[in-house]
Write a structure and sequence with these properties.
The protein is mainly α. It has helices at 6-21, 27-46, 50-69, 73-110, 128-143, 153-161, 174-181, 189-222, 229-260, 278-284, 287-301, 308-326, 330-348, 368-389, 393-403, 417-439, 456-473. α2 crosses α6, α3 runs parallel beside α5 (128-143) and α13 runs antiparallel to α14 (368-389). It is globular. The two termini are 17 Å apart.
């Protein structure tokens, strides 16, 4: 059930109506409704994996209680390890077993040893990386006394499986979401309208920007041997906007949907392509995952304290693990490694906190230095995205060999007149998108206060304009990229 589908629209209307008109007298009834709705939502993907979600929920719920009740430190730690090992065990089996098995086979073959390893043929349970991290953060926080264990199974289950964030985040923290689930919620018209506005912008990002860019990026990456370096670089740029529009669009829809139910989720994107350095980019891209790795991996390893070697080690660990989290492919690991290389100078010279404020905060346009920094950071990010998008390392290296050749200095040519025209139209959409994002870069999302100081007629005209663009120019219905992670 995709967010940009008619089925989800009907589902959302039904749940919203029951939530505010039938179950509004008790937040517990509302929570039961949210839980049933969330399990229904998840079962629409594959009902068999619903049992895995329920088992993971039960494991962490019970582990949290036992950790809090146990006085013996060793037993407390054992309950924590049990939860971590089982959760990561399931994640490893479904997501990484085949990768390790085939990699092991390849290593042995290099030494002349031919073996046939057994691989799994099951599909990856949608959202497993996200709800696994929800549970892990909860038990770790209980173990470290950051939060008291939840003793109501319904409340905890909603925290893990709340349908707007279930399959692709944001990765929530119990300290942020559980208190909202545990307390009464009343309908707030202003908050609901704001949620609808964010959903609208998220849909525009997904179906107009991401899905149209996907058509061009897919064509270019699939025909890389027949295209010039300049065209391949253009394709990488289209993919950069595809993945941003796709994932940040999903996050906008998720946050807006949650707001309809009186719940605030963690912000996941903050205009990352306006970043002036890689450190700033990673504070603005997939914020919930970046902060999760920072709090539960980077800081426990020592963070930026200690010697230069320790800081370097910690940075490479967190980025390589982040790359591996995205998928069982060497391309993702190299993508993480590249980002670690990018960020290392700022870590070594402790300049990673220079660009904290919004770029050109009190100005209309950036300075030339800021603009140059933004362009350089964006280009570095685009080069890294090539590994993220490529089918394998060989595919990525073939693309790079073309980009870093004389053909990079030729005029881009698509070998397909239809794709060429489509690319021009999509480029115009990207330009419009970037302008609106720049205007709204100080807000939680781009159109949060767009035209708010103007007459209501202007705002409504803009919203209807977006709706018309969505209905007329929506690209081929593509599944959200991060569903595979």
């Amino acid at each position: 059930m995709l967010f940009n589908s008619f089925d989800f629209t009907i589902f959302l209307l039904i749940v919203f109506t029951l939530y505010w008109f039938v179950a509004q007298k008790s937040f517990m009834f509302q929570n039961i409704l949210l839980l049933v709705s969330s399990y229904t939502f998840y079962a629409c993907w594959d009902w068999r994996f619903l049992f895995l979600l329920i088992f993971s929920t039960l494991l962490d719920f019970y582990s949290g209680i036992k950790i809090a009740q146990t006085k013996n430190h060793i037993l407390k730690r054992n309950w924590l390890y049990l939860s971590i090992i089982i959760n990561l065990g399931f994640l490893g089996i479904f997501k990484y077993y085949n990768f390790f098995a085939t990699s092991f086979e390849a290593v042995l073959s290099n030494f002349g040893l031919e073996v046939n390893v057994w691989t799994l043929t099951v599909i990856l349970p949608v959202g497993i990386s996200f709800y696994t991290f929800h549970g892990l953060s909860y038990v770790i926080d209980v173990y470290n006394d950051r939060i008291k264990p939840e003793i109501n199974f319904i409340n905890y289950s909603v925290f893990v499986s709340f349908f707007p964030l279930l399959v692709a985040g944001p990765i929530e923290r119990a300290t942020h979401l559980l208190p909202q689930i545990q307390n009464n919620r009343s309908f707030d018209k202003v908050k609901a309208v704001d949620g609808l506005r964010q959903i609208l912008w998220g849909l525009f990002k997904k179906v107009v920007i991401a899905d149209n860019c996907a058509k061009i990026a897919n064509y270019i990456f699939e025909n890389n041997m027949d295209l010039t370096g300049s065209t391949l670089f253009i394709g990488a740029i289209f993919f950069a906007f595809q993945i941003y529009g796709d994932f940040s669009g999903y996050s906008d829809i998720a946050l807006g949907t949650a707001r309809l139910f009186g719940i605030e989720l963690l912000r996941n994107f903050a205009y990352p392509y306006f970043s002036r350095d890689i450190a700033e980019f990673w504070r603005r891209w997939h914020i919930s995952l970046s902060s999760w790795f920072k709090d539960y991996l980077y800081i426990p390893l020592g963070g930026n304290k200690g010697s230069g070697w320790v800081r370097t080690r910690n940075v490479f660990i967190i980025f390589i693990v982040s790359g591996f989290w995205h998928g069982a492919n060497w391309t993702f690991i190299i993508w993480g490694f590249l980002n670690a290389l990018y960020i290392m100078p700022s870590i070594i010279f402790r300049s990673n906190r220079i660009n904290i404020e919004v770029v050109a905060k009190d100005k209309i346009l950036p300075t030339m230095v800021e603009f140059t920094s933004i362009c350089c950071t964006f280009c570095l990010t685009v080069f890294a995205w090539i590994f993220f998008r490529a089918e394998n390392v060989t595919h990525a290296l073939e693309i790079f060999s073309k980009i870093f050749s004389k053909s990079f200095f030729t005029f881009p040519f698509f070998n397909d007149e239809t794709i060429s025209k489509f690319a021009i139209l999509s480029a115009l959409f990207i330009l419009f998108f970037v302008v609106i994002e720049w205007i709204g870069r100080r807000e939680q999302y781009a159109i949060a206060s767009f035209l708010m100081k103007k007459h209501q007629l202007y705002r409504l005209s803009f919203y209807y304009f977006l709706l018309i663009i969505i209905f007329i120019f929506a690209g081929t219905n593509q599944q959200f990229i991060y569903f595979q992670f």
